[in-house]
Amino acid sequence: MIPLAEVLAHPPATAQAAAISGEDLHALVRQLYPICRSITGDGVRQTLAVLQEYLPGLEVHEVPTGTPVLDWQVPREWNIRDAWIKDRRGERVVDFRQHNLHVLGYSVPVRGTFTLAELKKHLYTLPEQPHLIPYRTAYYAETWGFCLAHAQLEALHEPEYEVCIDSTLAAGALTYGELLLPGDTDEEVLISSHICHPSLANDNLSGIAVATFLARHLLGQPRRYSYRFVFAPGTIGAITWLSQNVGAVARIRHGLVLSLLGETGAFTFKKSRRGTAEIDRTVALALREAAAPHRVVDFEPYGYDERQYCSPGFNLPVGCLSRTPYGQFPEYHTSADDLDFVRPEALLDSLHLTQAVMHMLEANHRYQNLSPYGEPELGRRGLYAAVSGRPNAARAQLALLWVLNLSDGQHSLLDIAERAGLPFALLQHAAELLLAHDLLAPLAD
Amino acid sequence: MIPLAEVLAHPPATAQAAAISGEDLHALVRQLYPICRSITGDGVRQTLAVLQEYLPGLEVHEVPTGTPVLDWQVPREWNIRDAWIKDRRGERVVDFRQHNLHVLGYSVPVRGTFTLAELKKHLYTLPEQPHLIPYRTAYYAETWGFCLAHAQLEALHEPEYEVCIDSTLAAGALTYGELLLPGDTDEEVLISSHICHPSLANDNLSGIAVATFLARHLLGQPRRYSYRFVFAPGTIGAITWLSQNVGAVARIRHGLVLSLLGETGAFTFKKSRRGTAEIDRTVALALREAAAPHRVVDFEPYGYDERQYCSPGFNLPVGCLSRTPYGQFPEYHTSADDLDFVRPEALLDSLHLTQAVMHMLEANHRYQNLSPYGEPELGRRGLYAAVSGRPNAARAQLALLWVLNLSDGQHSLLDIAERAGLPFALLQHAAELLLAHDLLAPLAD
Amino acid sequence: MIPLAEVLAHPPATAQAAAISGEDLHALVRQLYPICRSITGDGVRQTLAVLQEYLPGLEVHEVPTGTPVLDWQVPREWNIRDAWIKDRRGERVVDFRQHNLHVLGYSVPVRGTFTLAELKKHLYTLPEQPHLIPYRTAYYAETWGFCLAHAQLEALHEPEYEVCIDSTLAAGALTYGELLLPGDTDEEVLISSHICHPSLANDNLSGIAVATFLARHLLGQPRRYSYRFVFAPGTIGAITWLSQNVGAVARIRHGLVLSLLGETGAFTFKKSRRGTAEIDRTVALALREAAAPHRVVDFEPYGYDERQYCSPGFNLPVGCLSRTPYGQFPEYHTSADDLDFVRPEALLDSLHLTQAVMHMLEANHRYQNLSPYGEPELGRRGLYAAVSGRPNAARAQLALLWVLNLSDGQHSLLDIAERAGLPFALLQHAAELLLAHDLLAPLAD
């Protein structure tokens, strides 16, 4: 029998991850930061190779250019070696080697001399943030371009510039990574992060790092659910994965898209299209219990890959966990989204939150009260303080009463936590105590 | 294919009514104002004759006195030619020819000399608004009376007065007008306005004028629904119409009672008894989109003819659109509800709102997303900006995504507008674009 | 036919109880206060004997020690004659005869001399309320103890004290009282109050007194429901009653636990586990109509005997009515919960509220509008003011319209009162008027 005092002292699940530090997460972000990623190409492969150092079971999939994927086709593969704009002295005034954001993503190769006026049609800047390089792509338009600080643009006064983009856009493959952690059941939890952005730390090396360390954490835990981690390019990668994994899709019970989890802003949880799915309620509860500032917002069909998972044909219970949402912080999609912007402690808090969510999903069972007529006599089982009459019942005793009262076959621990306003862990341990005393029976999920 | 830019520039439906001015509406109010209406009689006939000038198809129905109508009977017909109170010098101190409110509606004929004390039992005033004539009726009590300014009453000091009410209350008919505008289906929208009040401009010449010009507007539009306009005396008129039109009643899908729409107060929409009918949600959405001050209130069984349409046996989805509700403005049911109280611009805004509501009802279809697994590739169809990465998606693109995401057979455009918080017209045009690209299919309503 | 004026003047139901005064209630509290009650024993029997003076039909049940009752067993019976702590001069420094709270409830007998240190292990005080004696019990732990003012404890300086508790804990019975007032149907309303506390006036002589006078009130009324009053020890008493009355349990349609109703704090109604039961809505409405400060709170599985009635196997529609809840007033479970703390006017208001609730339950019928198409003509039946046109309809007329409008077979008077925002009694009398005019028919409940 578990003594009551021990239940109260039971450490929260997230503390078990104490061995992982924010620095560990940040180190992975630093390792991935220099790589020039896009929706296809060697940058994605290099990224996944790094992740395999952390997750040896991670499988890398290559889907050939032209493969039909849902309403789309896998595009040509893009690779880039160098790019620059040189002035008449031959100096690189814009240089891909200095920052890979300088090239418009998916630029076709170009080599030649352009008048400044012609060149300017291919230049992207942020006049209101004149010292930052914007992040721009043109995946499905056959064009080329450079992104640069507006201050750089204003310094261009020569009549002509020499331009080079040494890229290839050719048949190849779309690459994604996938890791399945089998559990006691083949019901799956999907964790998905986009890996298509070049040197942007928060967007989305933060999500990748949290997902990676969440996987490492779960590897060391007993698992009721199987966990599927997908590291894929945004939109086309999720679409490709969905089209290639119809079987897995049918087994997804819960899912999270992880993105923008590295800065110190409040958490934002965007609910799944269903709005009241277990994952929606679980993340909301975990955020309330974390007692940190947060927002829970309704689904909308713009954002990250929840767009695909929550398309009406799939309608999966997949939400999106972020901190400050896309477009709502000034560093978003600029060169200011760098290694300093992402903070070890923020990454670690994000990891802990995802761990708490997974812990709740794992533990969210329904039970049947085996003594449902009146309260069972807790006292003779040592579950009730012997001298009573005090004004306030201990929370642990209240937890026992709530679990007994609502374990009528209709309510899960999550339901009980929402209604009782008591911590999920306290109710979970109350359920364990009651199970140990044959006052509860587990119900099939 | 409709270009995106054109969609964004698409003019709102109400602008198509630019040819109608507030003055047009006010001119009709002015034309009807002098007529002495009641629940029966020649004033109603004269009023309908004026409306026929605007709506040549308007049919006038006469239902004989004594006809059983639901729980009631058509009452005797009341007509009045003159009425006065004369002092000893023979001067009319109260004169029906000066204002038809001076006679208690449905007064029986009287001729004689009364002591001031006897006379006062038949006089109605507003002591707190001493310069206004009240509006009073006694349809179902065989009595007579005069309404006058309290100041007039206080000026009566003679011991006796000569009194005349030259009215007739005799077998005749109850008169109402009806106009049916056939549409593509025989499902009907009912527009109903009471026409039983004498010289009161807001109550309800305003509603009559808005209904008349709404009918003229719809005459020039393609119509999915058939529209039935009923101009009838309050209560007994609606009851009479209901009892005589059981077939039409069964075809009513939406309805509005129009009343008190001429002054500049905020709109008030009183929902149907159902509370969540499509008309209830549509008017509420139109009011939100109009971004004007307004209130949406629950049904209650007092008010205008929605009382009859929403009686439990019929329970029709008919709400009531007004501006300031009855009894809540000081001019209500007094001689101050005059031609100055009613404003051209207020009438026009009211008309535009009803047009917007009808436009939404017409356009509120459900669609099936034909590419429901993942998002369809909008880019290759020219539906997506080519260079992406900007922080905010254009609202037009968001509208496309919302329509795709929720067009699962369960959601109408109204549902989508409520959930997306985007203008109905933007979603409607998104749906048209997607239909044109075979990404949506219309569903039977 | 009942004239409208009479309906408006109809006195509220609670005024019929004018013959009962707050003093009557307080007198009963005073009579019961000195008795030393516990969950078993002669104090309970004496208490029920007093109640039988008020309620001659009250039956006293004795359930033998050891009887299995649900998950529990009836405990040994406890009786106490005397208890004291004497100093070396033989003076009683703690004396049961001065206050029966001085003995820890269910103390086993003890006689001997203890060092102060040993004695202190058996002493309970309230250091933060140093002049009050706490109330403590140890029903299911074989121990003994004294409760005393902290100031008394601090005055103990002698090395040893002589101690005596002259109690018996032996096979006997658990005693409870039960009164059934038969009604027109065998559907029952359960009123339950705990009677296990010794000299505590608010907890729960107040509840006992209100229940007793409610029963006396109902004895003089026609009754649709049968009313079952249970006066039983907390927890084990309710469990015993439930286990012995399975047949009655099945007939319970509504129920209230009455407790803590004697001080002047705001009412607190704790809803049943169901949350939307008729009793839940009725008490909430009665509280709103009483226009007194109050709170309506959700069920939780801690509190009084609603814990047992609302255990998941029974899940009865039983709420708990109190004023300031347990533990939330400083006098709670101390010697300050005395005869001064309980006020006659508070007891009377509590009684009136319970009477109003029972009156609503009795009168809460559903009706069928027999003239559901349009409004029936109220005027020709004398139900409508003859001269209309005034800005506000009288509330009595509005009540007629609401009852007609919602009497579609789906709505009870309670439903109508909630939706109309009109007093229940006004709607009830409107229904009586309409019944008298054959405009309504009663529906089977």
Plain-language structure description:
- 3 copies of one chain form a homotrimer.
- Chain A is of the alpha/beta class.
- The first copy, chain A, folds into 3 domains: 4-74 and 173-363, Aminopeptidase (3-Layer(aba) Sandwich), CATH 3.40.630.10; 78-169, Glucose Oxidase, domain 1; 366-442, Winged helix-like DNA-binding domain superfamily/Winged helix DNA-binding domain (Arc Repressor Mutant, subunit A, Orthogonal Bundle), CATH 1.10.10.
- Chain A contains 14 helices and 19 strands.
- In chain A, strand 2 (68-69) and strand 3 (72-73) form a beta hairpin.
- Chains in contact: A-B, A-C, B-C.
- At the A-B interface, helix 7 of A face helix 12 of B.
**Could you give me the name of the CATH homologous superfamily of the largest domain in chain A?**
Zn peptidases
Q: What is the beta-strand fraction of chain A?
A: 15-25%
Radius of gyration of chain A: 26 Å
Q: Structural class of the secondary structure composition of chain A?
A: alpha/beta
What is the average of the pLDDT values of chain A? 94
List how many beta strands of chain A DSSP finds. 19
For the record, the count of structural domains of chain A works out to 3
Give the proportion of residues in helices of chain A.
25-40%
Q: Which protein chains make the most extensive interface, counting residues with beta carbons within 8 Å of the other chain's beta carbons?
A: A-B, 38 and 29 residues
CATH architecture of the largest domain in chain A: 3-Layer(aba) Sandwich
Task: Enumerate how many helices of chain A there are, as a single number.
Answer: 14
Enter the CATH topology name of the largest domain in chain A. Answer: Aminopeptidase
Strands across the major sheet of chain A, in which order? 1-10-12-11-13-16-14-15
